[in-house]
Amino acid sequence: MKFAAIDIGSNAMRLLFCNVYESSSGTLFKKAELIRVPVRLGEDAFTNQVISKEKADDFIKVMKAFKLLLEVHRPIDFRACATAAMREAKNADEILKRINDETGINIELIDGGTEANLIYANHIAEHLDRNSSYLYIDVGGGSTELTLFSRNRHVFSRSFNVGAVRMLNQQIDKSTWTGFKEWIRTNTADYQPLIAIGSGGNINKLHKMARKKDNKPLLKEDLEEIFNELNALTLQERIEHLGLKPDRADVIIPAAKIFLSIMKNAQITKIFVPEIGLSDGIVHQLYENYKAKSLAGV
Fold first, then answer.
1. What confidence category does residue 124 fall into, taking pLDDT thresholds of 50, 70 and 90?
2. Alpha carbons 242 and 210: distance in angstroms, whole number
3. For residues 93-125, b (16+ Cβ closer than 10 Å) or e, as one string?
């Protein structure tokens, strides 16, 4: 079985195709293909609260390309979701209607709570120690989603307008940043010791830079060391010496700062990075809905 997910983020747009295999030992989700296009909608949305004509045109071109790939792959089902940048753009409805008219793709404008729940739908913590507490951390361009899972129980999901593109453009004021840290300290205090599970392109890249094997967590001191190394280089040096893509080289520092702040305030010493994100959560939910309908005979 194959499912597909489209994630319209603040920094990039992603199309994920995922194969799902069922066996007596469980269900396996295997990524077949991931296409990422760096159309930075957050640059417009967080500065002017409007998506410019140029970026809107690029957005539509990407969606037309995604439509063709969907026709080739023929997934059982797919879902497209837009997050923080489109939530703030005053012309979001107009653009999404145009996309629907020209491609037939309906993009859902989801709120922060839905975004957090979709990321949580990956159920990574269920494969770890059920007696421990885990904090899912997804740092995007426009928002950060936190989900706490303790003793096999979902405690909370919360979205904050704290993201790497916002921080890069100095669009997070002091009171928002202070409130963010205070909220984390207060709401994680009763769930110690706490382990983090990180998602998003930036933490995936930071994990690879630390040369950690897939199942090994990234320690807080590892992340601090990489952050200091990155911060000591210019943007051009990060691109040339470390081989980072231009659209990753600038946001990776503020993203690392956000992860470090969360870990510090939640007293977290290590973070697992299973390379999952919103698009993976969408696929998991699509599969669960498909199975539920099959069992119901729909």
1. confident
2. 12
3. eebbebbeeebebebeebebebbbbbbbbbebb
Specify whether the CB–CB gap between 83 and 9 falls below 8 A: yes
By CB atoms closer than 10 A (0-12, 13-18, 19+), residue 90 is exposed
Instruction: Give the CA distances from residue 10 to residues 15, 81, 165, 172, 236, in Å, rounded to whole numbers and listed in that order.
Output: 14, 12, 7, 15, 22
Structure tokens at 149: 């899972």
Tokens of 253: 């520092």
Out of 92-96, 120-124, 138-142, 242-246, which region has the weakest mean confidence (pLDDT)?
120-124
**Which residue stretches of 1-127 are H helix?**
41-48, 53-73, 84-88, 92-103, 112-120
Q: Assess whether the previous peptide bond of 193 is cis (omega < 30° from 0).
A: yes
Q: How far is CA 287 from CA 5, 81, 220, 293, in A?
A: 11, 16, 34, 10
